Amino acid sequence: FVRGYPFSLREGVPTAVSHGLWLNIPDYDAPTQLVKPRERNSRYVDAVLTIPKGTLFPMCGMNLAFNRELIGPAMYFGLMGDGQPIGRYDDMWAGWCVKVICDHLGWGVKTGLPYIWHSKASNPFVNLKKE
């Protein structure tokens, strides 16, 4: 292990969630989409990180895998669409809840590889109304 790597993570824990990343169109909130409409994510980083215990992250459902036996029943996204109470951030809320559960039970949540190619941007004006 490299210097500074947390002692609590050196023995490893079961991975409950693997949150992959994406290239091309970034997953921005509506105001950022409107300000940076042409920005693209082209930087590939060959890494997988364990998200530290007590740290939340904005999970995205585009590139996600999870261990059904460990966390499956908790991996529930809220209903999406017009008139639904959560609508836009259903995957982020699921991620925050699942991360707290994983931290409590001593399971790992990882982010990084693998990457997918994201080529369909959502409508920033529709998103702005939802946000």
TrEMBL record:
Coiled coil: none annotated. The keyword Membrane does not apply. Pfam families: RGP. It is found in: Golgi apparatus. It comes from the Eukaryota. Keywords: Cell wall biogenesis/degradation, Golgi apparatus. Its main location: Golgi. The keyword Membrane does not apply. GO terms for biological process: cell wall organization; plant-type cell wall organization or biogenesis; UDP-L-arabinose metabolic process. GO terms for cellular component: cytosol; Golgi apparatus; plant-type cell wall. GO terms for molecular function: UDP-arabinopyranose mutase activity. Belongs to the RGP family. This is Uncharacterized protein 8C01.
